[in-house]
Design a protein that fits this description.
Layout (H helix, E strand, L loop, with lengths): L6 E6 L9 H15 L3 E6 L11 H6 L4 H12 L2 E7 L7 H10 L6 E2 L7 E2 L5 E7 L4 H7 L3 H14 L4 E6 L7 H17 L2
Parallel strand pairs: 1-2, 1-3, 3-6, 6-7
Antiparallel strand pairs: 4-5
């Protein structure tokens, strides 16, 4: 059961900063539900950040994060719950969202290497919800394609640095869905926001 009041960081991973489409509507719905339930909300639109791409292991491990990334790290540290929303592109998250995670979840902030064994996780005590939109039906992505991009984010990225539990919501068939069906999806996300799940 979620605590009475949580600090929630919503990360909109849609790569189009001008988009007011489904990912934006889902972020709005989650935030609305959470705020009405008394939770605290912070938001990051990844497409609006000046973050750049990492080009070497040395840059990842010892480079100084850009100012926008350092600020995002503090916002992640302050959150109890992380909500990540993105459209599926080529079976995975868009490149700008992957770049965001590579930039923010660096050694020293998100984890610390050990001489032997698994790294020390620095972001334990936080939960996460991943919301993915896609054109294909959700069951095909989950059962035929094994949701590999989603599982990578859940286990190998968020789980690796300590987020648990990490839950997911897949919204498929968005290109052919009726307005009524999409309205039901949005209301379901609003309900998740109220419960901070």
């Amino acid at each position: 059961m979620a605590p009475a009041t949580r600090t929630i960081l919503i990360v909109n991973g849609h790569p189009d900063a001008s988009s007011k489409g489904l990912c934006h509507a889902l972020a709005e719905a989650y935030a609305d539900g959470a705020l009405k339930a008394g939770h605290k909300i912070d938001r990051i639109d990844v497409a609006r950040l000046d973050l750049g791409f990492l080009h070497s292991q040395a840059e990842f491990e010892t480079g100084k994060p850009p100012a926008a990334i350092a600020a995002a790290q503090e916002r992640i540290r302050a959150a109890d719950h992380l909500v990540i929303i993105f459209p599926l592109w080529l079976g995975d998250m868009p490149a700008v969202l992957k770049a965001f995670f590579e930039q923010t979840l660096r050694p020293g902030f998100a984890f610390t290497y050990r001489a032997s064994g698994f790294p020390i996780k620095h972001l334990q005590g936080r939960s996460a919800r991943i919301i993915v939109t896609m054109g294909m039906p959700a069951f095909i992505y989950r059962w035929y394609f094994w949701a590999h991009g989603l599982k990578n984010l859940e286990r190998n990225i968020l789980g690796f640095v300590g987020f648990a539990p990490v839950r997911d919501t897949i919204i498929g068939g968005v290109g052919t869905a009726s307005r009524e069906r999409m309205a039901r999806h949005i209301e379901a996300i609003r309900a998740l926001g109220r419960r901070a799940l």
